[in-house]
């Protein structure tokens, strides 16, 4: 996948832009925002009543009526504050600020505060005048604090809206990244199958051109391998014995190409492995290294390829494959530009075993050795 095909997930956006939301839910106020708003409003009312009860003498005349009056006034003002909060959240932000219309949003806030202050002053002077004996407040003394509290409610609404949209955008970004990784893994796995099939068909063609009696058996082995790829390799992980059975089938297919006489051409040592107790493994993860050994190895050497799979005491898996190089002048085949083998394998390891793998390549003019270690997952992973 080219870098240009990936969306700019980490590109910074202006502060006034929000994560896109569905049209039917972009103005919805989540439950947690309702709870935060009304908790603050009711807490403020409760503190005011507590202060009044503390300052008044117990049993003072009219104390009960004063508390009810304070509570009624507080609830009425709470409705005004809530109106500012919800109008800013549901109307001004999605219609203006989220679309980049900052000047219109500022004008909308001014109009909203003007309406709030007007209603607050009107209600205060009409229904809750200053107590007798207290110097009446001037209009400026009313407008300024009311404007400040109204503006604070606008800030609270905007802050909670920005926070909610940011968190929702982060969740969507993580989901998009996860989907991209799954898509990339699927593409990498699709690359493995044609690459393997192409090489195997070349082998079968070689047997058929020699009119070898082994050609039908090779076709049968290929059918078994393709059945595994179609039905089992779609899973994220497979049991290690199942993956080893797949490798054994592949090795049997390769043995058909080699002379039947002489020392064993293939050594596959799993004596240091408890396969039943081994962890699951990503399907066809080991195949590229094995396939490469036969594609570019010296088929006249004995053994042609030596494979060892072990499980140390720390629970990791250690896979080593060693083969002679058929053409020393060609260099390490897996490192060739444009090759599917090592590039594909490294990327799958990065996606499937981040921070839990080690792939070491040791190439000489006559030998090629690859060692892959898969470390066990930690609780944090």
From TrEMBL:
Pfam families: His_kinase (PF06580). Keywords: Kinase, Membrane, Transferase, Transmembrane, Transmembrane helix. It comes from Hymenobacter gummosus. One of its GO terms (molecular function) is phosphorelay sensor kinase activity. Residues 184-259 form the Signal transduction histidine kinase internal region domain. This is Histidine kinase. It comes from the Bacteria. The chain crosses the membrane at residues 70-90, 102-123, 143-164. GO terms for cellular component: membrane. InterPro entries: Bact_2-comp_sensor_kinase (IPR050640), HATPase_C_sf (IPR036890), Sig_transdc_His_kin_internal (IPR010559).
